[in-house]
Amino acid sequence: DDLAALVDALALRGTAYVGHSFSGAAGLVAAAADPGLFGSLVIVGSPSRYLADPATDYAGVYAWPEVASLLERIQADPADWIEGFVPAILGSAATPEMVADAARTLAGYPPRILLALFRAALEVDLRPLIGRIACPTLVIGTTHDPLVPVEVLRALADAIPGAAFATIDAGGHH
After folding, report:
1. Who has the most CB within 10 Å: 1, 92, 124, 128?
2. Do 161 and 133 meet the contact criterion of CB atoms below 8 Å apart?
């Protein structure tokens, strides 16, 4: 609702929306809720669901025990988790400045907010909404993204009517 209100307030209805990771998920939700909101979508590194779903054969990115362990690590020592997480998601091409900036951003969240943010992201399931997306959509994945494998993004593109899929030969989740 907030994204749609912003688009309307800025008179941007019908424009292209480009979203990466969390913001890609926000764009998917907004496009499904309001088919005329965007003229097109470009979604980069945003799965419809992180959790595997054995009941539907959805591979996902993580099984529940991995998610539970990740959330426990965030809760136990956010600073330690950030120190390991940021370099892993940015990949080997990240400069020290990029790593420091991303770590500073995450460290700026109060620990309970950081935990709630990642819990929400990891537990959300957008699959029931995806079929309602009516605008032209391009889903992009990088070949070496440690958070979102190409196969998961290809499944997202396959689930969106008429969507295209592309990969970029790159590493990291940035």
Report:
1. 124
2. yes
What pTM, to 2 d.p., does this model score?
A: 0.88
Burial letters 103-140, b for 16+ CB under 10 A, else e: beebeeeeeeebbeebeeebebebbebbeebbbbbbbb
Q: In what order do the strands lie in the sheet with 40-44?
A: 16-20, 40-44, 137-144, 164-171
* Residues taking part in catalysis: 21, 145, 173
Place of tokens 């088919």: 35
Residue 9, class by beta-carbon neighbours within 10 Å (0-12 exposed, 13-18 middle, 19+ buried)?
A: exposed
Residue 94: pLDDT band (50, 70, 90) is confident
Question: Among 38-42, 146-150, 153-157, whose mean pLDDT is lowest?
Answer: 146-150
H-assigned helices in 34-146: 64-76, 78-90, 96-107, 111-123, 127-130
> What six digits make up the tokens of 164?
């295209």
